[in-house]
């Protein structure tokens, strides 16, 4: 009986691991549901990105930090992966690459929203 219970536990854990958590969370900030990273930092989209392509490189990427994906990350549903010019991989939601802003100092800050008229908080519209 102990062998069956151990095998069943291993099976359940294996299935749970196959369905990894989404790369972002949804938080309500300033009466809006927005995406944040695992530390509660606001995520942003960039109007100059193309669907599935990041156009924020070099100096831009030092101010707007890409939401990096682990090498083992797998796209699922609306969450996709974008290969960057430097060879790294970042997360995108519905084709929009996601970034944090270096000017946000603590969880809940949204100081990058509207910056340059091209940066916007990533809103969780269907949540």
UniProtKB/TrEMBL annotation:
Pfam families to which the protein is assigned, alphabetical: Lipoprotein_15
Organism of provenance: Neoaquamicrobium microcysteis
InterPro entries given in the database record: Lipoprotein_repeat, UCP029720
Signal peptide start and end residues: 1-20
Keywords carried by this UniProt record: Signal
PANTHER family: BLL4220 PROTEIN (PTHR39335)
UniProt keyword Signal, yes or no: yes
Protein name per the record: Lipoprotein with Yx(FWY)xxD motif
Coiled coil segments of this chain: none
GO annotation terms (biological process): alkane catabolic process
Domain of life: Bacteria
């Amino acid at each position: 009986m102990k062998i069956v219970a151990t095998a069943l536990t291993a099976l359940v854990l294996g299935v749970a691991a196959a369905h990894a958590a989404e790369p972002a969370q949804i938080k309500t900030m300033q009466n809006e549901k927005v995406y944040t990273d695992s530390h509660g930092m606001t995520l942003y989209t960039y109007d100059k990105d193309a669907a599935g392509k990041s156009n924020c490189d070099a100096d831009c990427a030092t101010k707007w930090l890409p939401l990096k994906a682990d090498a083992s990350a797998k796209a699922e549903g609306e969450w996709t992966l974008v290969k960057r010019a430097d060879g790294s991989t970042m997360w995108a939601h519905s084709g929009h690459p996601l970034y944090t802003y270096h000017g946000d100092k603590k969880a809940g800050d949204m100081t990058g929203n509207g910056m340059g008229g091209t940066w916007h908080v990533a809103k969780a519209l269907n949540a």
